[in-house]
């Protein structure tokens, strides 16, 4: 629940979102020049950008009209898994600065070797395939860089680079001062896989472990997709692209996807010999992209079309300070921009919140923003408006989870009296059967089979198997027994909101309203 955007699945970094996104060069220096093939993937998501240039991930030109990056960088705005079109994405190629110089060209299509929705069942780890190819709208003038002919051995000198965060403090992940507009680079080496504990098992292909063993230099947030270069016969070639940290504490080398192990797939896409069919696109209309989380536009009972529209998400998804344990944030000004998604994940309209009506992470984990537009206005612009449920989810109830990138079919395995995560406790949390969630999907609406009613919000999942720590919720039984299961996911009930929300605000003194008050 706390790891909003850095970790997407396991140890992967999502890119400046939720997001989860990517990494920067910590311990590097300003690069005097950029390799002609290096590019900055820039995605316009209002309310999500940390920097004015919308930098999201690094890319590298490997053919005149093709760049390679990390697969988790290519989940921005469309629901397709294998081959689909990106939303408002472009690449600036051949410049040390993310805002000027080089060539800025749009992205026409992307192809992903691995996807987060691929089965985690049967022990499959999609991070072994965290590679994507982006087809540009036109060929560019820059010179592509060759892919290495073989996997570099441990001890091979390597050059890493990127525009990600130079701050190692996770609390500064969204501090603009931590994100340089000028490229940073560092000289380092390929390490033995043992220096990266997050490389598990003997699966082939295996990621590369590159960077300082003490974490300097290493990758930071928003470096995902950036290259590691090595030399072959006196010339630079690309060996891998950033996927995530190599250690759980982010104080070691980084994980790089080994491009040499996926050369056949890369060549087949670029040469158009094997082009995957676009998979069926799930209907994700109604998802609201908040940058670090997902939300939905909900209408409480009695709200009229001319009432200010409200957006529901998690309490831990709010901008700024999170609600204190046991308390809530009530009726505070806001100026947060969000995107409302259409059926295929495309943006249908931009909406803006002028007030944070309510947020708490105690008893439940919910937040409600008030928009500066009415329900009638947002609906006229193409946004989906859901009804807010007035009854709780019961064991056995079925619902779908709309993550903005997928529509997951779920059911309630149990309603858990007490779930604890870090300093916060929630009551009557919904433990899922048939589905799970990953960081970056916080706040996703749980939608009833009628397709019109939001009955809950996705909240958190146990990522490491730990008990009751951040990102590792546990269940507390009446006798004090603590249970924590890695991968177990939970949603939150929202029926209490229907008893507390007014036409344009919240009244915590209403009969039946038992939400926490301001701390």
Automatic annotation (TrEMBL):
Cite the SUPFAM superfamilies for this sequence. Answer: Trypsin-like serine proteases
SMART domains under this entry? Tryp_SPc
Among Gene3D superfamilies, the record links this protein to: 2.40.10.120, Trypsin-like serine proteases
| Alphabetically ordered keywords of this record | Disulfide bond
At the top level, the lineage of the source is Bacteria
Family to which this protein belongs: Belongs to the peptidase S1 family.
Give the protein's recorded name. Answer: Peptidase S1 and S6 chymotrypsin/Hap
Origin organism is Tsukamurella paurometabola (strain ATCC 8368 / DSM 20162 / CCUG 35730 / CIP 100753 / JCM 10117 / KCTC 9821 / NBRC 16120 / NCIMB 702349 / NCTC 13040) (Corynebacterium paurometabolum)
């Amino acid at each position: 629940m706390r790891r909003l955007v850095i970790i997407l699945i396991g140890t992967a970094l999502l890119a400046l979102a939720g997001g989860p996104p990517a990494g920067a060069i910590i311990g590097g220096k300003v690069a005097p020049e950029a390799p002609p093939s290096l590019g900055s993937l820039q995605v316009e998501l209002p309310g999500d950008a940390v920097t004015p240039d919308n930098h999201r991930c690094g890319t590298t030109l490997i053919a005149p009209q093709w760049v390679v990056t990390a697969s988790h960088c290519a989940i921005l705005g469309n629901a397709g898994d294998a081959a689909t079109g990106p939303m408002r994405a472009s690449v600036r190629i051949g410049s040390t600065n993310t805002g000027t110089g080089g060539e800025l060209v749009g992205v026409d299509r992307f192809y992903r070797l691995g996807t987060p929705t691929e089965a985690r069942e049967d022990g499959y780890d999609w991070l072994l395939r965290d590679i994507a190819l982006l087809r540009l709208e036109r060929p560019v003038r820059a010179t592509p860089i060759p892919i290495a002919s073989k996997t570099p051995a441990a001890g091979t000198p390597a050059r890493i680079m990127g525009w990600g965060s130079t701050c190692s403090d996770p609390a500064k992940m969204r501090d603009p001062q931590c994100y340089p507009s000028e490229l940073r680079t560092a000289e380092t080496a390929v390490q033995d896989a043992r220096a990266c504990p997050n490389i598990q098992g003997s699966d082939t292909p295996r990621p590369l472990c590159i960077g300082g063993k003490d974490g300097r230099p290493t990758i930071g947030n928003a470096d995902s997709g950036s290259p590691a270069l090595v030399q072959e016969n006196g010339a630079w070639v690309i060996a891998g692209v950033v996927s995530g940290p190599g250690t759980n504490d982010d104080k070691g080398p980084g994980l790089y996807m080994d491009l040499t192990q996926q050369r056949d797939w890369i060549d087949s896409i670029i040469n158009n010999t094997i082009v995957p069919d676009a998979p069926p696109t799930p209907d994700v209309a109604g998802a609201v992209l908040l940058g670090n989380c997902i939300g939905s536009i909900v209408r409480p009972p009695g709200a009229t079309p001319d009432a200010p529209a409200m957006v529901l998400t998690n309490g831990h998804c709010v901008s700024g300070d999170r609600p204190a344990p046991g308390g809530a944030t009530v009726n505070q000004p806001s100026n947060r921009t969000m995107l409302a998604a259409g059926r295929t994940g495309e943006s249908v309209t931009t909406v803006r919140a002028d007030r944070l009506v309510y947020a708490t992470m105690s008893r439940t984990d919910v937040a409600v923003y008030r928009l500066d537009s009415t329900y009638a206005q947002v609906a006229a612009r193409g946004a989906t408006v859901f009804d807010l449920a007035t009854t709780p989810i019961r064991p056995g109830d079925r619902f779908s989870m709309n993550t903005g990138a997928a529509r997951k079919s779920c059911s309630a395995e149990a309603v858990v009296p007490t779930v604890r995560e870090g300093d916060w406790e929630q009551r009557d949390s919904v433990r899922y059967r048939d589905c799970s969630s990953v960081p970056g999907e916080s706040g996703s609406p749980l939608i009833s089979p009628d397709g019109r009613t939001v009955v809950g919000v996705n909240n958190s999942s146990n990522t490491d198997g730990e008990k009751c720590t951040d990102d590792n919720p546990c269940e507390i039984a009446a006798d004090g027994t603590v249970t924590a299961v890695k991968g177990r996911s939970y949603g939150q009930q929202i029926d209490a909101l229907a008893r507390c929300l007014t036409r344009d605000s919240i009244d915590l003194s209403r009969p039946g309203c038992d939400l926490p008050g301001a701390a």
